[in-house]
């Protein structure tokens, strides 16, 4: 399971909400249309979510916004659409700005301080490889990319769509 984030204009988001097939055609285009607006978090997504919220995906109802919005806003693009592992979620521009402001407060050192690979494995955080030596760097590298992605989305007044495939 791979976590993905996709930046779109508010206008494009509205079009996607009216016709979700547009989303699939954009993110699965042969030539990777708008690749600079698509972030692949590989398998780090649940570890990042856990470190930000203290919750696994199984406990998503307990996760506090706006940090929980980093991957799952609860606002569904299309309940009937399966992007690989369920439907896509979205954030409007004002929500992206709110999330970016919260992410900006979290340093890499602070994230590292929350990291406990054994605890994460015991909590069932996908893919349960967090006690390996290289796992901390893997998560922090992707966290930095996630922060930068939301920073750009905020600065460019873009909405964000998230999905697993």
Shape: globular
- Seen as an oligomer or otherwise, the chain set is single chain
Q: If you compute it from the alpha carbons, what radius of gyration comes out, rounded to the nearest whole angstrom?
A: 15 Å
CATH third-level topology: Hypothetical protein yfbM fold
How does the major sheet shape up?
4 strands, antiparallel
Could you please describe the fold and organization of this structure?
There is one protein chain. The chain has one domain (3-164): Hypothetical protein yfbM fold (3-Layer(aba) Sandwich). It is 43% helix and 11% strand. It contains seven helices and four strands. A four-stranded antiparallel β-sheet has the order 2-1-4-3. Helix 4 packs across helix 7 (135-155). The protein is globular, with a radius of gyration of 15 Å. It starts with a strand and ends with a strand.
Key words describing this protein structure:
4 strands; 7 helices; globular; single chain; alpha+beta; 165 residues; Hypothetical protein yfbM fold; four-stranded antiparallel sheet
Helix and strand topology:
Layout: E1 3-8, H1 10-18, H2 21-27, E2 38-40, H3 45-53, E3 89-91, H4 93-104, H5 108-114, H6 117-122, H7 135-155, E4 159-164
Antiparallel strand pairs: 1-2, 1-4, 3-4
Helix pairs in contact: 4-7
């Amino acid at each position: 399971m791979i976590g993905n984030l996709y930046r779109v204009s508010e206008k494009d988001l509205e079009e996607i909400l009216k016709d979700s097939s547009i989303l699939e055609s954009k993110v699965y285009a042969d030539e990777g249309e708008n690749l600079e607006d698509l972030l692949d978090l590989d398998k780090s997504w649940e570890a990042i979510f856990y470190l930000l919220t203290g919750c696994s995906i199984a406990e998503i109802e307990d996760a506090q916004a706006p940090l929980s919005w980093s991957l799952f806003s609860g606002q569904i693009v299309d309940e009937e659409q399966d992007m690989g592992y369920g439907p896509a979620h979205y954030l409007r521009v004002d929500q992206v700005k709110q999330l970016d402001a919260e992410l900006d407060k979290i340093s890499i050192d602070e994230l590292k301080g929350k990291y406990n690979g054994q605890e994460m494995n015991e909590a069932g955080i996908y893919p349960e490889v967090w006690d390996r030596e290289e796992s901390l760097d893997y998560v922090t590298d992707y966290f930095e990319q996630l922060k930068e992605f939301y920073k750009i989305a905020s600065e460019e007044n873009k909405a964000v769509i998230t999905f697993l495939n």
